Amino acid sequence: MKTIRWIWVYVSKARWAIGLSMLVLVLGQSAQIMAQGSQKFLIDDVLVGKHYDKLKWVLLYFTLTYLTSYVLNWWGRYLTRMNGLCLHKHMGSSLMSVIQRTPVSSIQSGRTAKWVQYFTSDIQQVSTFVTDELPRGIQQLGGTLLLIAIIGWNSPVVLGIVTVFSVLYIAIGRYFAPIMRKQVREMQEKRGELLTKIEEGISSTREVIAFNRMAWEEKSFRGTFAIFFDRVMQNGKLANSQLLLSNSVQWIGRMAVLVFGGYSVIKGNVSIGAFVIVYQYSNQLFTNYQTVFNFAMNMSGQLAYSDRVKELFEQEKIGEGTRELRAPVKSIEFESVTFAYPGTERHVLNDLDLSLPTGRKLAIVGASGGGKSTITQLLLRFFEPSSGCIRINGIPLSDIRMTDWMGKLSVVFQEPFLLPDTIRNNLMLGRVGITDEQMIDACRSAQIHDFIESLEQGYDTVVGERGYTLSGGQRQRVAIARAMMGDPELMIMDEATSALDMETEQKLQENLDKRRAGKTTIVIAHRLSTIRNADLILVMHQGRLVEQGTHEELMAKDEAYRRLVSTMSENGAGSIGA
Fold first, then answer.
1. 356: which DSSP letter?
2. Strands 361-366 vs 409-412: parallel, antiparallel or unpaired
3. What average pLDDT does the segment 207-231 reach?
4. Which domains, ranges and CATH numbers included, belong to the chain?
5. Which residue spans traverse the membrane (predicted)?
6. What whole-number distance in Å separates Cα of residue 65 and Cα of residue 70?
């Protein structure tokens, strides 16, 4: 019942449209049944009774009812399709919103194909069930009730025979339904694993070929497919068992109706026309019972799809926040912040107290695992602190509306993501109000404009999947230009220039410093050349802030920062804490 109530939240917004489709389909089914009824008058009145003058009225009745049935059924199919697409769109948009508010840890712990399956399979199944299969089930139910009334009026005994065998039908359905639902759920889970395996196989093609592991990859795929195949076959065997029992019941029931009806005609209790139409209606009633039974079976399976989607909608989400943040960011404070990544016990940040001055270029350095990138991930609200609080202008970050906060910052990661689209669209990312001049100016600052112009299609050049037709340094510079567009209040660069050569990075840093003067820029880097001209350098060690100051001030102290620089010089690595 909880799953049905959850589905109703989405269905209720289109309940009138779905209700109309049900009504139209039921009326179409009723008109079709009434069209069949013309056979009784044709046999008894025209053929047997030889009232040939009634033929035209019988044909007129048949034509009108048949055309009515055709039009209503066509309209009903149109409505169900339209409702299905609308519901699919609505649920898909809601699911995308849920995923965007899902903790990054949950996203990263899952597989890409798993999330894709929610959109391509589960939501499709739910929307199809609600807007197509459910109305058709109601259509068959309405037709069933009409057939019961007609058969009961003409021959209560035949109705009794059909009812008895239908009870057996329903008993079979009640027995198989929970088993079918469980098997469908397991089959969907294995299907998701298979899709994940396919996605991984395609993504890792380069490495598989390079290491000559084609046979290993094929064996792994065959194993995953074998498990999925086994679940499909189990489901098929169960369905076949159900069909064997139900079809046997249906066949025996039809024979019983035929024997009784034939006996009644011989005794003169019913007319030939009445016998023919009652027998046809009884066969159709058996078929309707089977359809309703299959609908009940499918409903159990469809609820398994709904359960999967419902679980995703109800999982933990990042709080939206309700407080507005319209004023400029004046202060960023970490108050006794402790944090451990989900599934681990080691604290990456330990009771961290940190004040990030705004309007300046800040650099965060330290050995690997010291908590540098964790600070930015908390600022981006990819994760929430285990304890403590982050305050923006004195307001807890978790209380601030996500759209207000994210609208004030931009970020560049070490491995930026580019869409398989044009460079222009990758730079714009759907933003409005940014002119081509602003875009080109940002690309000049990021040292990428000349390269883009050298391409045959220029800014309209389509990059490959994840931008892999570009080099790592080119992808980073496109991402930096994208982040600089719009001049955000806060810009975060997490190893954003690690793939650039020293000369290009130096020019980019000079342009960035000029462009970002008076604005807050947080830089996380290992290269000394990247951070030495920062207004303030923060040194992290084992999740704590151990030093802060300018490059010259920290070198004069001869403590943690200087040791990092010395290690860099001794190793010749050209980076701090590499």
1. E
2. unpaired
3. 82
4. 2-314 (1.20.1560.10), 360-373+409-571 (3.40.50.300)
5. 59-75, 145-172
6. 9
pLDDT at 388: 93
Give 154's Cβ-side CA count (13 Å radius): 24
- Residue 577's nearest CA partner among 371, 493, 376, 568 is 568
Distance of alpha carbon 72 from alpha carbon 29, whole angstroms: 8
* DSSP H or E run through 134: helix 134-154
Reading the block at residue 201, the tokens are 């196989």
User: How confident is the model over 265-282, as a mean pLDDT?
Assistant: 79
Cα(547)–Cα(565) distance, integer angstroms: 14
* Tokens 């009730």 sit on residue: 145
What distance in Å separates the CA atoms of residue 459 and residue 72, rounded to the nearest whole number?
52
135: pLDDT confidence band, cut at 50, 70 and 90?
confident
End-to-end CA distance of the chain: 56
Q: Model confidence over 392-438: pLDDT tens digits?
A: 999 999 899 888 888 888 988 888 888 888 999 999 988 888 888 99
For residue 14, give Cα distances in angstroms to 9, 20, 82, 503.
10, 10, 11, 60
Tokens for 306? Answer: 């709904």
Residue 112 has pLDDT above 70, yes or no: no
What single DSSP character describes residue 45?
I
Q: What DSSP element (H or E) covers 169?
A: helix 156-203
Under DSSP, is residue 149 helix (H, G, I), strand (E, B) or coil? Answer: helix
